Amino acid sequence: MKNLVKILTCVVIYVLTFGALPNWVGDIPTAHAGAPPQGNWISVPAGTRILVRNSETLSSANQRAGARFTGQLETNLMAEGVVAAPRGATVHGQVVAVESAGRMAGGSELAVQLTDIVINDTAHPIMTNTYQLQGQGQGGRTARNVVGGAGLGSVIGAVAGGGRGAAIGAAAGGGLGTARAASGGGQQVSLARGTLLEFRLQQPASLPRPR
Known about the structure:
elongated; single chain
């Protein structure tokens, strides 16, 4: 009887040691094997340059603050070595400030910023700097495009008013473009359809990773 108990004890010890124990230990590397899977989102860092071609004309003569507008990406939006948003993707923006010319001595103003990028039929929010056009009042001859931050590259704006067309101005480095109008009266400022606008992300944006 004692021998039988010893035999059964040895069998139990053998099974626990050479059977269940290796399986238990083997579960550990399985759970941690390989690199963790990539997330489903790309983080586009703050300061990323976004070039947009405006799809409609915006003017200080008839726009209202809060009005929405659309455009398309002029170039691929890159992040983490991949295309976060392809060229031609629809973007939305809004007018954040507007002032019509001809009110006493005040000049005109039009300021816009981007609000989202559409990817796979879903709008993803973004926050950018403001693209701003300012025109002088009665007697003024210039309109300026003021973009926060230095080194933004060329910016393009247009001025319309006084019965005559306006020139297009662009400047690199300081981010300040100037457009001159021939008329001496107060000038409305506008962004014509097809105008190329440059923005910078003010905060990181999360966009879906391409599949």
